[in-house]
Predict the structure of Peptide ABC transporter substrate-binding protein.
Amino acid sequence: MVKQPESNELIPLTTPITRRQAMQRFALVTGGGVMAVNLLAACNDAPPSTQKQVASLTPTPRAQTLVINQAEFTTFDSANPFIPNGQQYNAGLYQVCEEFLFYFNMVTGEITPWLAKSWEYNSAHTQLTVHLNPKAKWNDGQPFTSKDILFTINMLLKNPQLSGANSYIPFVKDMSAPDAQTVVFTLKDPNPRFHYNFVAGIVNSQDIVAEHIWSGKDPMTMKDNPPVRTGPYKLDRVIPAQKMFIWKKNPDYWNKDEFDPKPEYVVYRTGPTLDSEVEEFKRGQIDIPANFDLNHANAIKNGGYQNIVIENQFRDPCPRGVLINSDPSKGLLSDSRMHWAISYLIDRKTLAASTWLMPTVPAQYPWADYPGNEKWSNKEIADKYQLTYDPKKAASLLDEMGAKAGSDGKRNYQGKPLQFEIITPQKPGMPEYLNGQKLADELGKVGITATLRYYDGAAYDDKLNNGQFDIVSGWICGNTFDPGQLYTNFEIRYYVPIGKNAFNNQYRVKDKALSDLAVKLDNVDPNDPKAKATFDQALEAYYKALPWIPVYQTTYPTFFNTSYWTGWPTNENLYNIPSNWWGQFMFIIGKLQPAGK
């Protein structure tokens, strides 16, 4: 048997999963822009931290309340995770009310058992056994058991229209519950990563609902309001007119002896206008803002307000990148030498210093540079394939491929002018748009005509999935738990010609060496020390092909107010994920202490 330790201690993670294909991209990209001078001036007028605090913005005692501003809330009467717009996940539901079987801390690379204690596979990875925590209870006092998991997954298997069903229908052959704390999944094929469905990685993992609440209900219309979940807080009330969710500590919380957050109330609310939010922050009325950026935070602090923590070390899981349509019909774009030529035209240091929300660093690997990701790196291989800015090398590669410049400086290939369209899902002025603009300029300097176009929402998705594009300026996602998930995107078995909808390998990569290694990793236990050699081989094959080109690491600064609560993550002590819309934020709340006001 391949086992994971059964304990409440952190488990070092050495495993993989995919990202963009498995989950919709949550709100990880925030708007940036040049801030008005008068607003920054207002930040500098901040009162000293000793100023008397004003009344609470919530109908709860300020000193007992954690107040978090968030994005626009639209769903106020439903907690159904299986239908479109069925829940407001970022209003406290995933953060303080719902819990998951396991939590992954990307900062450290560790997994924390929670509603479950451990998992194990048989030697063939065709059977997964999950052992639940016998203490766990729903917030109505009923026990959380294996029957709830079986009910939830069976509901998904029987209703393919529900969100999340595709994570199980192709893979699950059978399920059983030998006892109240044990669930056994029998799989159709070997799958050493099936347990990732139950590990909260980016934002969340599989939602488990209570059988005694949902049984006999239509999952397409069920609201589950107020939500019956297992977390330390219950829904106290919702005030739609104020776009506010108020959560109150559950005095009967099942894990209170080991996890007892100090705030009596947690309030999530839609943030006001930027200038109003700055004033709320300076008055100590909110603990976490939603709208102002690093410039405003620095201005507030430099203006004399010292009750502010500025954390700017946590990376987005997805580095910004340039991604190439490598379909054989794309001519030069299908040639890895062209990928490298494009890479040599990217001035990562300049872009990292100037286009992101704050200065950041170039990316060498196609994943975030978390300490927990170091185990997937290989310096010797990375040094061999340095991603440097070198237009002369780019020009040399173009010449080598037969795309030589004419007397007018324009390059032709097989008798036709060389021209590409770069597309991006981000509006003009946003970092990804600026990165694409700079690439178009650099391509022009070496004789390639390049245009940049922004496509929104469904139009962009349609272009991407049908392969109707040349180059994308966006981001590189995939390595949530390990790179095997990322490399899955390059498997030839998922290839479909341009014009047909691709659910994977949207970039039409047909590199046999990379594909073969990706398939091999699909069936490798990432916890096996012997697997590192295969991961290294796949990394080298990836660099040789370079269908996705890393540009720079992406950092989203977060800001916290210490007027009422202390213990926030800092640059010096980034102990967990600081994003207040992720499920892991529950552990941040659990670390907070009253400031004594």
